[in-house]
Write a structure and sequence with these properties.
The complex is a heterodimer.
Chain A lengths: L2 E5 L3 E2 L5 E8 L8 E8 L6 E7 L4 E3 L7 E6 L4 E6 L8 E10 L6 E6 L3 E5 L2
Chain B lengths: L8 E4 L5 E6 L10 E6 L6 E4 L13 E6 L2 E6 L8 E8 L5 E3 L3 E5 L1
Parallel strand pairs in B: 1-9
Antiparallel strand pairs in B: 2-6, 3-4, 3-7, 5-6, 7-8, 7-9
Classes of the chains: A mainly beta, B mainly beta.
Chain lengths: 124, 109
């Protein structure tokens, strides 16, 4: 049974750094083809992909946010950590982590399991 | 402004069929696989379709996906009130970003 759970502060101040942890079970990030992504959703708005880390430690970042994001993994703890610097009120959103499965075809990826999300509010 | 274009809303009566379009370009849909996600109110998104037209275990065959060129379509038949949700398409892009559509709100009248 695959599960993911996001954890981190519910409230951060502008200019602070946000650190979110995704703790998962039911799969290993050392297995070929396994990845974990972070996705966020501002209240009432669409989903926005942030970053992905692969089983081989390859990392991918949203072009618009890459200067502020760092993704890392601790395979032994089954955790993926996302840090986002210089937080702003526009970063207020529910942040999700999702298992990202690479399929057989080139360019085949999908988010097959999601955490329940954690709401982060940026306010002074 | 989302990279993938979806209609903001669609509606249909219970028992009817509805389709949701997702339009992209050769840098995303045209050369990669599309997946679709259902987000019921107040919940996390759920994978409905992957690799353009495949259903994960447990997803009823009322849900179908297709892709042609730089566009993809999600079809839902036998609409139920429980299908009322936001639906998102997504795919990998040549910019090495994952891109989502802006989401479509389905109302079952």
């Amino acid at each position: 049974q695959v599960t993911l759970r996001e954890s981190g502060p519910a409230l951060v101040k502008p200019t602070q750094t946000l650190t979110l942890t995704c703790t998962f079970s039911g799969f290993s990030l050392s297995t070929s083809g396994m990845c974990v992504s972070w996705i966020r959703q501002p209240p009432g708005k669409a989903l926005e992909w942030l970053a992905r880390i692969d089983w081989d430690d390859d990392k991918y970042y949203s072009t618009s946010l890459k200067t502020r994001l760092t993704i890392s993994k601790d395979t032994s703890k089954n955790q993926v950590v996302l840090t986002m610097t210089n937080m702003d009120p526009v970063d207020t959103a529910t942040y999700y982590c999702a298992r990202t499965r690479r399929g057989d075809g080139s360019g085949s990826y999908s988010f097959d399991y999601w955490g329940q999300g954690t709401l982060v509010t940026v306010s002074s | 402004q989302s990279v993938l274009t979806q209609p903001p809303s669609v509606s249909a009566a219970p028992g009817q069929k509805v389709t949701i379009s997702c339009s992209g370009s050769s840098s995303n849909i045209g050369n990669n696989y599309v997946s679709w996600y259902q987000q019921l109110p107040g919940t996390a998104p759920k994978l409905l379709i992957y690799d353009n037209n495949k259903r994960p275990s447990g997803i009823p065959d009322r849900f179908s996906g297709s892709k042609s060129g730089t566009s993809a379509t999600l079809g839902i038949t036998g609409l139920q009130t429980g299908d009322e949700a936001d639906y998102y398409c997504g795919t990998w892009d040549s910019s090495l970003n994952w891109v989502f559509g802006g989401g479509t709100k389905l109302t079952v009248l």
